[in-house]
Amino acid sequence: MQAEIYIQQENYEQALQCDLKFLEYNKNDAYANFVCALDYCNLSDWENALKYINAAIKLEPENLWYLKERKNINAERNN
Predict the structure, then answer these.
(1) What backbone phi and psi angles, to 5 degrees, belong to 11?
(2) CA distance 29 to 60
(3) 33 alpha carbon, distance to own chain's centre
(4) What is the pLDDT of residues 15-47, one digit of tens each?
(5) What is the largest CA-CA distance in the chain?
(6) CA–CA distance, 73 with 56 (Å, rounded to integer)
(7) DSSP characters over 9-45
(8) Which of these, 16, 53, 25, lies nearest to 37 by C-alpha position?
(9) Angle (deg, nearest 10), helices 46-59 and 30-42
(10) Among 59, 55, 58, which Cα is nearest to 38's?
(11) What 8-state DSSP symbol labels residue 8?
């Protein structure tokens, strides 16, 4: 996946653009929302990270990874 290459190159903005494009066609994909949340975390954009992690949790409310990441995002927002 192209986004992974961008992440390895620490080009987080390009990675985000790839992942958002994928999400356009897969809005109900919890993992795609989760990945976008991680992209926003890499950019220290905590508000958007929270938006996308909440979308992932809405689709998969029992996913412990998503719940843990939301806790991490909220901790960063409060710093």
Answers:
(1) -100, 75
(2) 9
(3) 5
(4) 999 999 999 999 999 999 999 999 999 999 999
(5) 34
(6) 13
(7) TT-HHHHHHHHHHHHHH-TT-HHHHHHHHHHHHHTT-
(8) 53
(9) 160
(10) 55
(11) H
